[in-house]
Every structure is written in structure tokens, then in C-alpha cells.
Design brief:
The complex is a heterodimer of chains A (282) and B (435). By secondary structure, chain A is mainly α. Chain A has helices spanning 4-39, 44-49, 61-69, 72-103, 109-121, 128-137, 144-169, 172-180, 185-196, 198-214, 217-222, 231-235, 246-275, 277-281. In chain B, 45% of the residues are buried. In chain B, the strands form three sheets. In chain B, strands 3, 6, 7, 8, 9, 10, 11 and 12 form an eight-stranded mixed beta sheet that branches. Chain B has a two-stranded parallel ribbon with strand order 1-2. Chain B is α/β, with parallel strands linked by helices and 435 residues long. Classes of the chains: A mainly alpha (282), B alpha/beta (435).
């Protein structure tokens, strides 16, 4: 007969194994970040010579140099403007579209939705030249507005898919009640659907904010003027064809990563809810 | 509902601001502005300085716009070509056939008349081999009107470098690197006996293997026979090719090659050599700048790969490192060419070389370049490059050759096996081409 000691030992062993696994995962995930932060305080020479994680001397001036040489001030503002505009644009358009796909019956609904989903399969670099030619014809090339429109279109498919899945599972009774209270279709979307969709919206915000914040190839292609470039382009200043200025690059990466880590931390609880949202209506 | 409208208005306001932000950038300007697109991050500061000097001298404003990394730059140039939005000066980072397609589409100006003016003064200022990369000779296979379509701004050669300190440790004369292959093998045995690492290189990026294999092919069988192999007239089963493949086997057996070289990327190889952990490296002239950043105190020198045969001279890959092309549709064509002439002149080239540690394309300023860089430049006459051969090997054959050499190094295959496999693939591709 198995004793209480046996069960206790088994539980402790399993817990220990789980925690060792989780700790390993934490180290694997956090180590590159730590390496980035500590390397940002080293010199070009010590990065290649000194294998230790924590530098012997801290060169805080790397941050000032990265900020000045990379011209981070202007690019930072540009990135904030692009991220805010694109995320707002995506939320408005995708939530309206997803709600319509989920609740309204109109001819071509399915085929239209399939077309949107098919757009998810096209890799963004594959459409660069087409986007460039289109923007050129619309006289929107080398304008922030053209870039924002492109980035909104890039993020729409996934966001519509996420929100439609959520709206499909949302109880119709809530909408019926709102309708009895005199709400219009737009009113139901605004007063009922959107507040309930907050966890999914958080996921949409974080995914798209990350996408826009980290994007630079499309920006590089669309913009000729450096003054419109986003923050990621500034990081390329430190990456030469053969020589890379690692301390400044790491300092720049740390500066660039901070806002997005902040956004993630602020929305963390909604993201967890968003990921498990299926269970809420189940 | 009111709050919803407020949010919508706020969103519209953001869109409006960004639209105005874009429109505000369009300004009328009557002074001549030359726009240049490039990808060379480490040269931007030097380019800007030269632009300021040119503006002070002529009143012409020059904008150097940097778009990096180079693959994103390539996409930008392709997209701009589609929309006819190329700047006055740009670079084409691609194979010669892509360069030719830009010329055919009318995007690149033929610089021949400018090169040949005043008794060919501009043309003669360059290393002939650097210019050859941008040149299309009479009867070229691309169907391009013969001429020069770009100006080189610097050159690159790929050679071997050796660590002088480690040479001393091995009891060798640091001023007398091996010049023949047997000497190299002897050093390899010493390296092995002393538990040191021999030659490091980025041979995981297979083109560097291809480069050294070609060096030895030119040395063992001469240029004509190598080109005849590409034309399909000589088989890879030929004893000379087996000898080329055997070079790698002998280097492996003697201990010349560092362990793990076939999976080594060039950045790792550079780091190992810069930190004094490898006796030799096979690298391009750009390494001077790289090693300077990684370890300014490193004592090293450049050398040619030691000859395996006395029949033909050793050839190394080299030629134009970076080149600039003039937009044939530029509204400031004449001003642009004038600037490019000034930019590639002796004084500007010497400045660029000093600041960026690249070998200048202008041969008249070699006297003023730093030591190790000068060693790389000294062997410019021995350079060759697939871009100037006028004939290309099938990519699958090149791949089989490079991977075959990797197999020899790790002891999976013999030189004869690799030669036979590559020959079969070549025959298959030739048959496909005929059909």
C-alpha cells in the first residue's frame, strides 16, 4: 500500500521537475535580454574579448551616443505616431468588419471573409513592389499617411479573424436586450460588442503595436526622406556591411524595446484573458 | 454614442495630422540637389563630409541617403525602378545579369563618353579590374551596348592573413609567410602538434569556399581551362580538378584548417582571428576595419594563398567593392556625372580610404593608404571575379562543388568522388540546356 510519504514525495518531485523546466524556460527567454542590456554597457573591444555577462566597467555614455548618432528623438516620435494611428485604424476597421461578418447576412459574406483570410497567407515582403507602385500612383509614396494605410491593411486580416471568432461565440441575448432598449446596430457594436471584446482587443492592440513598432523594411521602401523613418531604421545606423557597432546597437535596442515591454506589461492581464476568451463563452 | 463620435473624431484627427505631415514635406527648391542612395552604413559619416566639401566648393547640394541593410536596399532600388523613382546616383547590388536588366530598362547611364573624354583621363584613374566589373565588352552575352555603366568607389580583394604573434610562438619568421603549398602544410603540422587552430574562414557561407577553390583552379590549370570547364568543354573529372579538390583534403590532413570550419560563419572566424585564437584566416580586405574594431593591437599581415603549382600564377577574387551608377533619367545628369568624377578623384578617394579603411578604386592614391590595406591592394593585378568572366557556372553545379568540398573537409567523401559527382551534375545541366 502506498503511504502518504510516497504521495508527498511524488508531488514534491513533480513540482520540482516542473519548476526546473519553468526556470530553464525563463533563463532561455530572459538571457538574450540580459545579454543585450549588459552588452550595451561594454565597449566594442570588450564585447569580443570579455566573455563574462556583467561588464567590468559600465559605459553609460553608450546610451547618449546611440541616441545622438542614431537620431532617435525624431524617429521615436515617428514610431509613436505610426503605432498609435495604425492600431486605432485597425481596431476601428477590423472590429466593424468582424462584427458585420459575424452578425449580418449579406450576399458574398463568406467569399469576402475567405478573401480576407487568404490575405493572411501572403507574406508581406511579397507585396512590397505592388504596394510601392500603388502608392506611387496614388501620390502617397514618401508620405506617412501612405505608410499608415499600408500598415493598417497589413494588420487587418489577423485582427478580423481574431475578433470574428470572439463575436461568433458572444451570446446573442445581450444584443437582443440592447435592441429592446432601442440601440441601433452601430450602438450595439459600440455599447455591447466592443466592451465585451476588451480582452481580444488587447491582444489585437499588442500584436499590431509590436508589428508596427518593429517594422522597418516597408518603411525603408516607401520613404525616401529620412525624416519620416521609424525607430527601427535608426538601429540600422549601427549595423555596417562588415562592421557592426555592437555596444551602440545594444543600447539602441534597449531603448527601442522599452516602450513595447511597457505596453505589454500594461495589457498583460487582458492578453491572458484574450487568449483564454473562448472558455468564457464556452 | 457621443463618446463613440468623440473617439472617431480623435482618430480622424490623428489621420489628418499624419496626412498633413506628409504633404508638408513637398517643397519647391531651385538649387541643384543630387540625391544618392547607398547601403554602406559605416561610410555615411565620411560621405556626408565629402558632400559638405562639394557643396562648399560648387554650391551643389548632395544628399547621401542611407538605406540598410543591403537586402532591404536592393528591394528599395527594385521597387523604385518599377515606379521610375530612382535617385540621381544609386548602386545595383546584384549579379551582372540583374545589372544588365537595369541598363536594358533604361535606368543606367552609359558613362563611356565621360570616361573616354580628355584622353580617357577618368577611365585611366581606376584600377582596370575594378572598372571591368561595371563594363560590358563587345559581344557580351547580355546584349548590352559595349561600355562602362558604373564608377567603382572602392575595391576588395580576398586573401589570407596570418597572425604574426602566433607565427613567433610556432618558431616561424613573422615576416616570411609561406609562399608555396608544401610550406603551408608543414606549418599545418606544427599547428596540429602545438594544439593550435589553423585557418579560420566563413565556410558555412559556401561562396568563400568557392572563392578559394577558384583561386587554386586558376593556379593549377590556368584561366582558359577553368573557363573551358564552365563552357562544358572540360570535365570536372579532369585530373587538374581532382588536384584542386585534393588541396582541401591535404589542408585538412595536415592540420591547416581549424576545427569546425565548414559550419563557421565569417563573423565567428573574424572574432577568432582577431582574438589571436587562429593562425590564419581567409578573408576579404574589409577585415582590416573589422579587426581594428575587435582588437586594435592585433599584429597580422596579408599574404596570397600559397601556390600549389608553378604552372600558372595564383589568382585571387577581387575587383570593385562598391560602385555607383548614374540614373539615365536624372534631371541633373551632367551635374551628377561631374560630382561622381570629383568623388572618385585622388583626394576624395584617399580621404575615404583613410576614414573607412577600404582600398580606393583610384589607383593614383595608393601611396597614402594604411599598411595592411596596402598589402591587400598590392595584389590587385592578380585579381579575377566571376562577374568579369562573361560566363557563369550553373548554380546547382557551384552548389555541388562547394558542398562537395565541405564533404571532403569533414572526411565524408574523397576528392575523386566529389569530382565525379560534380561532373555528373554538370553533364545533366548541359544536356538540359541543349534541349
Amino acid at each position: 500500500m502506498k503511504t502518504a510519504v510516497y504521495y508527498k514525495t511524488k508531488k514534491i518531485t513533480i513540482n520540482a521537475l516542473i519548476h526546473i523546466f519553468l526556470l530553464t524556460m525563463v533563463v532561455v527567454c530572459v538571457f538574450p535580454l540580459l545579454w543585450m542590456v549588459f552588452s550595451s554597457f561594454k565597449t566594442q573591444e570588450t564585447i569580443f574579448r570579455d566573455a563574462s555577462l556583467i561588464p567590468r566597467e559600465f559605459h553609460f555614455e553608450n546610451y547618449c551616443l546611440a541616441w545622438q548618432q542614431g537620431g532617435f528623438g525624431r524617429y521615436f516620435l515617428n514610431s509613436i505616431l505610426y503605432t498609435a494611428s495604425v492600431v486605432i485604424g485597425i481596431i476601428i476597421v477590423s472590429s466593424l468588419a468582424a462584427y458585420a461578418f459575424s452578425r449580418f447576412r449579406f450576399p458574398g459574406r463568406k467569399i469576402l471573409f475567405i478573401i480576407f483570410m487568404a490575405a493572411m497567407m501572403i507574406p508581406v515582403p511579397g507585396s512590397f513592389v505592388a504596394l510601392y507602385v500603388l502608392l506611387n500612383k496614388l501620390h502617397l509614396r514618401d508620405t506617412p499617411f501612405g505608410y499608415i494605410l499600408c500598415m493598417i491593411s497589413v494588420g487587418l486580416s489577423t485582427s478580423i479573424f481574431l475578433l470574428k471568432t470572439f463575436f461568433d461565440k458572444m451570446p446573442r441575448e445581450l444584443e437582443d436586450a440592447a435592441r429592446i432598449d432601442g440601440c441601433s446596430k452601430l450602438g450595439i457594436w459600440w455599447h455591447v460588442a466592443l466592451p465585451l471584446a476588451r480582452p481580444v482587443l488587447a491582444v489585437v492592440v499588442v500584436f499590431n503595436a509590436l508589428n508596427v513598432w518593429n517594422e522597418y523594411i516597408l518603411a525603408l521602401i516607401i520613404f525616401d526622406s529620412r525624416k519620416f523613418m521609424p525607430l527601427q531604421v535608426a538601429l540600422q545606423t549601427f549595423r555596417g556591411e562588415f562592421v557592426t557597432n555592437y555596444p551602440l546597437l545594444m543600447a539602441g535596442l534597449t531603448i527601442t524595446a522599452l516602450p513595447i515591454i511597457l505596453v505589454y506589461l500594461l495589457m498583460q492581464k487582458y492578453i491572458v484573458k484574450g487568449v483564454t476568451s473562448g472558455a468564457v463563452f464556452g | 454614442m457621443k463618446s463613440f463620435l468623440r473617439y472617431c473624431l480623435a482618430a480622424l484627427l490623428i489621420f489628418g495630422i499624419s496626412a498633413l505631415y506628409g504633404c508638408a514635406s513637398k517643397q519647391e527648391n531651385k538649387t541643384v540637389i543630387i540625391n544618392i542612395w547607398h547601403w554602406m552604413t559605416d561610410r555615411q559619416a565620411a560621405f556626408k563630409e565629402l558632400a559638405a566639401r562639394y557643396e562648399a566648393k560648387t554650391g551643389v547640394k548632395v544628399n547621401f541617403e542611407l538605406y540598410a541593410p543591403s537586402d532591404a536596399y536592393t528591394q528599395k532600388v527594385r521597387a523604385a525602378a518599377q515606379g521610375n523613382n530612382l535617385p540621381d546616383i544609386f548602386g545595383v547590388l546584384a549579379e551582372k545579369k540583374d545589372f544588365a536588366s537595369f541598363i536594358k530598362a533604361g535606368h543606367i547611364l552609359d558613362l563611356t563618353p565621360y570616361m573616354d573624354a580628355v584622353d580617357g583621363k577618368w577611365r585611366s584613374s581606376f584600377f582596370a579590374k575594378a572598372l571591368a566589373v561595371n563594363e560590358f565588352p563587345e559581344g557580351n552575352s547580355y546584349g548590352i551596348k559595349p561600355g562602362v555603366y558604373g564608377a567603382p568607389i572602392d575595391i576588395t580583394t580576398i586573401q589570407m592573413v596570418y597572425n604574426k604573434g602566433l607565427f613567433k610562438e610556432l618558431g616561424l619568421n613573422p615576416d616570411n609567410p609561406p609562399s608555396i603549398f608544401d610550406e603551408l602544410l608543414k606549418i599545418g603540422r606544427k599547428i596540429k602538434a602545438n594544439n593550435m587552430q589553423g585557418l579560420v574562414s566563413g565556410w558555412a557561407e559556401v561562396w568563400m569556399i568557392d572563392c578559394l577553390a577558384n583561386n587554386y583552379a586558376f593556379n593549377i590549370m590556368g584561366e582558359e581551362k577553368v573557363l573551358d570547364t564552365l563552357r562544358g568543354k572540360v570535365s570536372y573529372n579532369d585530373p587538374d580538378w581532382v588536384k584542386v579538390f585534393s588541396v582541401f583534403k591535404e589542408m585538412r590532413d595536415s592540420g591547416v584548417l581549424a576545427s569546425g570550419i565548414v559550419t563557421m560563419i565569417n563573423k565567428t572566424a573574424e572574432q577568432l582571428f582577431a582574438n589571436g585564437k587562429a593562425v590564419f584566416a581567409f578573408n576579404g580586405s574589409w577585415c582590416v576595419n573589422v579587426y581594428k574594431g575587435m582588437n586594435p593591437d592585433l599584429e597580422y599581415a596579408a599574404m596570397l594563398p600559397p601556390k600549389a603549382s608553378d604552372k600558372y600564377p595564383m589568382a585571387i577574387w577581387g575587383g570593385a567593392g562598391s560602385s555607383f551608377m548614374v540614373n539615365a533619367r536624372s534631371q541633373n545628369k551632367e551635374e551628377t556625372v561631374k560630382f561622381l568624377k570629383w568623388f572618385t578623384d585622388k583626394e576624395q578617394q584617399a580621404y575615404l580610404s583613410g576614414v573607412t579603411q577600404n582600398i580606393p578604386a583610384n589607383k593614383d592614391c595608393l601611396g597614402s593608404i594604411p599598411g595592411t590595406l596596402a598589402q591587400f591592394a598590392d595584389d590587385m593585378e592578380l585579381t579575377t571575379h566571376p562577374n568579369i568572366w562573361g560566363i557563369w557556372e550553373f548554380p546547382v553545379v557551384t552548389e555541388a562543388l562547394d558542398k562537395g568540398i565541405q564533404s571532403i573537409i569533414i572526411g565524408e567523401k574523397s576528392p575523386e568522388q566529389v569530382a565525379s559527382e560534380v561532373a555528373k551534375i554538370k553533364e545533366r545541366e548541359m544536356a538540359k540546356k541543349k534541349n
